[in-house]
Amino acid sequence: MKMGVIGYGRRIRNMLAEIRKVDPDCRVVAITDVRNDEIRAADPSLKDVTFYEDYRLMLTENKLDGLLIGTRCSMHATIAADVLPYGIPLFLEKPVATRMEDLIRLKSVADSTDTTVVVSFPLRTAPIVQLAKEIVNSGRIGTVEHVQAINNVPYGGVYYHHWYRDENETGGLFLQKATHDFDYIQFLLGERKPVRICAVTSKQIFKGTKPAGLKCRDCDERDTCPESMYCVHRAAHETPAGEYCCFAVDTGNEDSGSAIIQYDTGMHVAYSQNFVVRQRAGTRSCRLIGFRGTLEFDFYTNRITVHLHHTKRVETHQIGDDGEHFGGDAVLAHNFVEVMRGTAASLSPLQAGLDSALLCLKARESARTHTFQELRWD
Q1: With left for phi above 0 and alpha for psi between -120 and 50, is residue 327 left, alpha or beta?
Q2: What is the pTM of this model?
Q3: Are 79 and 88 in contact (CB under 8 A)?
Q4: By mean pLDDT, which of 118-132, 166-180, 311-325 is the weakest?
Q5: Mean pLDDT of the chain, nearest integer
Q6: Fewer C-beta neighbours within 10 Å, C or N terminus of the chain?
């Protein structure tokens, strides 16, 4: 099958590798990227690929079985809205939009087409979430009446050292991170509908008075600053997240945020994320609480624990290590291949991406205005 790519970044390259594991006959025949010349020169395996300056020309000159969008975040919605009418099965990177006006336009176009979209939400397809969904649906813990979720991100430096520091591109860290968590939580809750949200954000650590544009290599503190790309590599043998100073005046993005989501049944979700923790302080966990029991899981340990409230029994389920994004990428890749073949529906449909982006944008607005925000499309 022939695929076209708009935005040939690392994320899409990883997904293409997963897709080829599913079906080695899937191949990229066309690419458009602002770095066309650089990409062509760096990868000889793309010698037979046609590069385009305009993605619309790419779509009209090729009969594609699938299309993948992996541009920077601010362009996802605009490009997706442009290509949906072509009817080509689409893999769309998250967040599906970073501005409300773009989100509304994308929804309007989506409502008028029947193009199948797989949104890049690998957490909902990860084996640990799939098993949690199975347990919730079994009724073992009763109806879920409260959710507590945490994402303490140990690799958060990427949002301050790299291009991700530009909030005009990211839209803020609810859209970068919470979009995944809001989606898998909604997936676990099923048909219940979120009706309002309130949120706060803080920027307590990654701020400062260093000059704009400062890079670690040009800083006198590069050998002592714990966030310096040199110190990070030396102390943890990790690849540095980027080269820009995270204590400069132009360092964007909040470094923590929390949200409360109320649902139509009266229940609520409490969510918090943090980008300061490092090493083993990282966690991405969730508790779903019902009258009969509590189910909790952590993506990093790949373990589910079920506490049955009215007995002394505690059940533990250990999930194997299944690869990138806790095994979710492989499932998404397999699903997208089937979507291109016309043999399956999307496991991560565009409506899920729209709903999650709406939550994130309303959370951002709530934090800015110190108000509850109603979750309405009007």
Answers
A1: left
A2: 0.96
A3: no
A4: 311-325
A5: 95
A6: C
